[in-house]
Amino acid sequence: MSTRKMSAALSHGPDSPFALETVEIEEPRADEILVRIVATGLCHTDLFTKSALPKKLGPCVFGHEGAGIVEAVGSSITHIFEGDHVLLSYRSCGACRQCRSGHRAYCERSHRLNSSGARTDGSAPITQNGTPIRSAFFGQSSFAQYAITTADNTVVVDPAVDLTVVAPLGCGFQTGGGAVLNTLRPEPDSTFVVFGAGSVGFAALLAARAVGVSTLVAVDPVPERRKLAEEFGAVVVDPGSDDVVAAVRDATDGGSTHSLDTTGIGAVVNQGVTSLRGRGTLVVVGLGVHDLTVNMADIMLNGKTIRGCVEGDSDIATFIPQLVDLYTAGQFPIDRLVTPYAFADINRAVTDQAAGKVIKPVLFW
């Protein structure tokens, strides 16, 4: 199999910074697509996985919010063509019970397709001096100048759309927007509260605003994020100084009908549950606490619901174009959430995101 050289941001372990190095990527197989990456969002999932994998596994290429231009397609690809502008997202098999029922985000082969560090046959599309590199992350590993993808995780978009802005629709913005539009589905007279106004939380807030939800609330400790949330029409709550439950109940006339937790922090999840109105729903999308103690009497007697949500419960083939349309119509202003960084500045982007200086870093070549 022939290869081409490229630069990629390699992770050499949980405690080391990313390093831009030269690697080789294979040309696409019959069922694969080669994409020249223009931009890639930096997602918490990239950093969480980086921190969780032991150094002994060797270098890895992460990145799963890629956006770029198709460079080459395999012989069995029929609806994606060289030159297409595309967004990359998660893989799904299309054949399991979850996929067949329209719930591709819960694909029964998800781990093998997205998190194994290789193709399904065990081979690596990226090597360095002949040595396989853990890659194929979310079927793309887009912290690189090129990515090998497949038809099931590649979505064609209008070439007029700025790929640097829409790249995070592959995961973060999709997760927040989908949690609202696909899972919670609030009505205009609903009340919506987001706990944690990072990129996922802001995407959710903008989605709720796009469908006309009358009352929006954002709970976040960072003053700059609260200020931006106010500009988007939300009531803001500072968890460092406010009684969160009381403040949410006051802002929502007795409790929220729909809430989203992006933090994965047990105490915050409990604030979300407690501040729900009767028959209200809290969706959780943050990975953090493994065990949670909740007031079952409050949940049962008040008919409250807690449910998880992966990738916004979305089918990327239809939902990503829906979000792109909302953005181009001016109803989903995600451009105000994005800060671009050259790929050479990836470690500064990581630092700035951790410090709360930016909402969504997007790396570009």
TrEMBL record:
Checking Pfam families in the record gives: ADH_N, ADH_zinc_N
Q: Any idea which UniProt keywords this protein has?
A: Metal-binding, NAD, Oxidoreductase, Zinc
Q: Where does the Enoyl reductase (ER) domain start and stop, copy by copy?
A: 13-363
Names of required cofactors: Zn(2+)
Instruction: Spell out the PANTHER family in the cross-references.
Output: ALCOHOL DEHYDROGENASE, ALCOHOL DEHYDROGENASE CLASS-3
Identify its protein family: Belongs to the zinc-containing alcohol dehydrogenase family.
- Protein name as it appears in the record: NAD(P)-dependent alcohol dehydrogenase
Provenance organism: Rhodococcus globerulus
